Amino acid sequence: MKFIFADSLDYVDPHYDFGEDRSRPQREPYWDDVFPHELLGYAPYDGILVSKAIVGGSRINGKYSESQAMRFRRVGVREFMRFREEDYPGSLVFGDCGAFSYHKMEYPPYTSEEMVDFYGDGRFTHGCSIDHVIFDFVEDDRESDFEPEQLEENWRRFEITSSNAEDFLKQSKRLGNSFTPMGVVQGWSPRSMAEAAVRLKKMGYNYVAIGGTVPLRAPQVMTALRAIREAVGDDLQMHILGFAKAEEFESFREFNITSFDTTSPLIRSFKDSSRNYYALKPEGGLEYYSAVRIPQSIENNTLKNLAKQGVYSQEDLQSRERSALHALRAYDRGDADLQDALHAVMDYTAPLAIGRDQGFTDAETRKLEGLRERYRRTLGDRPWKACDCQVCREVGVEVIIFRASNRNKRRGIHNLQAYSKHIGRMEERGRHVEHQEV
Fold it and tell me: Where are the domains of the chain?
């Protein structure tokens, strides 16, 4: 199963000064920064996915600047991402529309002709047809669970997705075999998703991409995949779009998944409340740690408001911030013990999490104690010391400090390599089991 990383300009400054918390004045983002495969020295994924919506255009504002979008169209995805075939042989570059970005629109903002040109100009290896996201889902196909208007809208989006797939396949033929076209499945039930896949197979697709799985629970996704496989057989290649459930890889083995894309390991580094740092368990599986939150006091909105209200002085907050950073670095060097580091961190955590240093309610006390225990576990286990990835070797304890993009994304890049190794270990274990059964 190929792991495809869904990129969103996830690069970092390799020369960032963590002590001063700043980049060099002459730094030029993108040109001076590095992507995960450049920072680590190898690609922790089998390929990269770039969405049309992330690049942007006249109807959707993407993350790329105008000059970046122009360069992307001019040199293609591999050159833009510095992910050249000769440097990463056998790697793949997938593209899709980024349907979540326009899910509130009545119709997708792109035409099949536009998307074919996007994939062709970008020199993608694989490109998805234009879909329209369906958010509803029932596991047992009870259409009576939906209001008539709701079911009508689901059918409308289903037909738009199916019609676009048919047109896209025809349009792709004018570029010959420059990329592999992938028909997207959307549905609101296992039966409707199976019907969508059957339609795509009849159209002539050999590779389908299952959409709409992001908000679903793992059992729901499995129910849909089982229905699809029963309907189309095992000869159709299958990709899962936005497959955040891939950590439950073993449960999905029976569905013969060809590839999946996710950005979850990187996103969790700064959007998850507690699972910010991934560590490989010796016996198999992943272990998760909370990053220690030490935001910049002069930039954090909560702390700025407390200073404006006079609850704390700006000088006091900055002093606590410096003490917390100093204590963590001293602990990492072996010049301070765990209790000293934890005390300094919690002295800064109280204003950040509660807004005061005393008079806590029972709920606030439980919140602080919960944070203290999570931080105690992270600092006590020192997982960054056991990791040999480039990120942990270079920046040490900075990787578990939750503080602005250059730390948070580095932690996300660490997570990508841990996640990739986790997938590799599970695949190896699966092959071993299959060999024993034979």
Answer: 2-262, 287-416
User: Which residues make Cβ contacts (< 8 Å) with residue 9, sequence separation at least 6?
Assistant: 30, 54, 63, 64, 68
pTM (2 d.p.): 0.94
Catalytic residues, by residue number, are 96, 261
CATH for 2-262 (3.40.50.720, 3.20.20.105, 2.40.50.140, 3.40.50.10490): 3.20.20.105
Pairing of strands 47-51, 207-210: unpaired
Rounded to 5°, the CA angle 264-270-272 comes to: 65
Asked if residue 14 lies in contact with residue 39, where contact means CB atoms within 8 angstroms, the answer is yes
Each residue's pLDDT, cut to its tens digit, for the chain (438 residues) gives 899 999 999 999 999 999 999 999 999 999 999 999 999 999 999 999 999 999 998 788 999 999 999 999 999 999 999 999 999 999 999 999 999 999 999 999 999 999 999 999 999 999 999 999 999 999 876 777 788 899 999 999 999 999 999 999 999 998 888 999 999 999 999 999 999 999 999 999 999 999 999 889 999 999 999 999 999 999 999 999 998 775 677 788 889 999 999 999 999 999 999 999 999 999 888 999 999 999 999 999 999 999 999 999 999 999 999 999 999 999 999 999 999 999 999 999 999 999 999 999 999 999 999 999 999 999 999 999 999 999 999 999 999 999 999 999 999 999 999 999 999 988 887 665 555 555
CA proximity to 201, closest of 247, 237, 241: 237
CA distance 392 to 414: 7
Compute CA distances 45 → 27, 36, 262, 308, whole Å. Answer: 27, 10, 10, 46
- 94 and 64 Cβ atoms separated by less than 8 Å: no
